[in-house]
């Protein structure tokens, strides 16, 4: 069937606002909100036998892998090697027979990710993938597939596929944690409760996003924009910067806030806005002090945090985006939305082609 934009000017906005529904849809296949448990399909290995896992992807899907790394390490005590597919496929990485390699892709057709998958397969790994398109080359080559239920994603910039990948990975990490005896059922229930709130919290963010449109006006004339965060806020910063580059052609960088002093702070002056991703989590104070450092160099800060964070630091920023107070575990899923919206509104102000940015293709089927 022909897919329309509904009442929206762009597919991207339609896809952004679909997120509460499609996240819920994705969760419904393996998540029981009543019993607060996760039931995954049978997997061809035992989580307890794995000394580490490998996750490979490109672009936004790679940032989902990065976030998953923090989750698996935290709740499943499992080390995770993440890599972008174009590097992984050529660097002859030693893989121990019987390991697990997972591949994340909206399309299931990305050439480098598919080649990386084949490399892992030839090297005796169990192959799992997280794919949005029902029938795909990567799906056919995999031992098991988690299908995200984002529905067709038309905008070149990935939005809803990303957040659906994230909830899927969150559930896999929790299940791995339970199987490995790292978390008990009480902790599983607590994390599941946090996940089950995600669709409703995402809907709240979407209802109150007029503010983000106004903030876009404060930054759309910049030539360079920096995004910083720590923990899972770091990949969110990378994703924010990628989204902005793709859509608005403004040069943007995502950095781990703790790396600022190692170089990028040299860029900072009053012409370089800094987007600070800082949910109330164990990293908050550290990120807050990095925020103060960039403000001391006259950066205009846009501060993404929750009520507690904004109360503490919001007055120093040129603008704040208040997000719901949630368990830090699910924060990166929700903080993805304001960075998508900010990039969207900046692009609209610049008049660029939101759904079909120059030089980009929806799926990169040649390397
Ligand atoms: C994201 O906005 C991009 N257009 C791009 O980075 C994309 O995520 C990447 O090409 C991976 O695509 P895939 O998920 O279909 O493999």
Automatic annotation (TrEMBL):
Keyword Glycosyltransferase: no
Residues forming the catalytic site: 362
Class of the enzyme per the UniProt entry, highest EC level: transferase
Boundaries of every SIS domain copy: 43-182, 215-357
Molecular function GO terms recorded: glutamine-fructose-6-phosphate transaminase (isomerizing) activity
Keywords assigned by UniProt, alphabetized: Aminotransferase, Cytoplasm, Glutamine amidotransferase, Repeat, Transferase
Domain of life: Bacteria
Keyword Nucleotide-binding: no
Catalytic activity from the UniProt record: D-fructose 6-phosphate + L-glutamine = D-glucosamine 6-phosphate + L-glutamate
Enzyme Commission number(s): 2.6.1.16
Subcellular location: Cytoplasm
Described function: Catalyzes the first step in hexosamine metabolism, converting fructose-6P into glucosamine-6P using glutamine as a nitrogen source.
Subunit structure: Homodimer.
Protein name (Swiss-Prot/TrEMBL): Glutamine--fructose-6-phosphate aminotransferase [isomerizing]
Underlying gene: glmS
């Amino acid at each position: 069937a022909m897919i329309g934009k509904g009442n929206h000017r762009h597919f991207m906005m339609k896809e952004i606002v679909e997120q509460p529904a499609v996240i819920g849809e994705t969760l419904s296949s393996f998540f029981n909100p009543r019993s607060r448990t996760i039931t995954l399909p049978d997997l061809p290995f035992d989580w307890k036998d794995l000394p580490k896992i490998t996750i490979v992807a490109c672009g936004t899907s790679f940032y989902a892998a990065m976030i998953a790394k923090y989750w698996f390490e935290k709740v499943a005590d499992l080390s995770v090697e993440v890599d972008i597919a174009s590097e992984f496929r050529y660097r002859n990485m030693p893989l121990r027979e019987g390991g697990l390699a997972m591949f994340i892709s909206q399309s299931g057709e990305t050439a480098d990710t598919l080649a990386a998958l084949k490399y892992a397969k030839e090297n005796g790994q169990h192959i799992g993938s997280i794919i949005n398109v029902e029938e795909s080359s990567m799906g056919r080559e995999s031992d098991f597939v988690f299908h995200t239920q984002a529905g067709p994603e038309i905008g070149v910039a990935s939005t809803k596929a990303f957040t659906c990948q994230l909830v899927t990975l969150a559930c896999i990490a929790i299940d791995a944690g339970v199987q490995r005896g790292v978390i008990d059922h009480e902790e599983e229930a607590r994390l599941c409760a946090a996940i089950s709130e995600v669709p409703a919290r995402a809907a709240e963010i979407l209802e109150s996003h007029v503010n983000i449109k106004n903030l876009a006006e404060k930054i759309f004339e910049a030539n360079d924009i920096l995004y910083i965060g720590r923990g899972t806020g770091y990949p969110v910063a990378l994703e924010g910067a990628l989204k902005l580059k793709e859509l608005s052609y403004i040069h943007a960088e995502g950095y781990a806030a703790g790396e600022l002093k190692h170089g990028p702070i040299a860029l900072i002056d009053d012409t370089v806005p800094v987007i600070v991703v800082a949910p109330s989590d164990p990293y908050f104070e550290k990120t807050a002090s990095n925020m103060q450092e960039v403000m001391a160099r006259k950066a205009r800060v846009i501060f993404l945090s929750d009520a507690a964070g904004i109360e503490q630091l919001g007055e120093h920023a040129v603008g704040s985006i208040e997000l719901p107070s949630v368990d830090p575990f699910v924060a990166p899923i929700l903080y993805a939305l304001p960075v998508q919206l900010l990039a969207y509104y900046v692009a609209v102000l610049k008049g660029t082609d939101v759904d079909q940015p120059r030089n980009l293709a929806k799926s990169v089927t040649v390397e």
